[in-house]
Sequence to fold (89 residues):
Amino acid sequence: MLQIKVCIGSSCHLKGSYDVIRSLQATIAHHGLQEQVELQAGFCLGQCTHGVVVQVGEQKILGVLPEQVEGLFAEYVLPEVASPGSSTH
Ligand code: FES
Fold:
């Protein structure tokens, strides 16, 4: 299960965390990945000046806008879930 964490700390919240979460939810559903991707809201990830911060596995992606979610998904999420046989983490 790949974990995606969206910061909902006050700074990221003000910059639109919930829009990013909604966009991620829609994208996960669109790709039918509800069983492989776990979406979580998390507290401050320590990069407040670069919000909204999204963490995919161990990778932090800074300054995410809702309209960037599709591209972020293609770049960071799909490669992680697309390799069958590497599910041991
Ligand atoms: S509030 Fe999001 S990184 Fe601090």
About this structure: The beta strands are 2-7, 37-42, 54-56, 59-61. Residues 17-30 form the longest helix (14 residues). DSSP finds three helices and four strands in the chain. The radius of gyration is 12 Å.
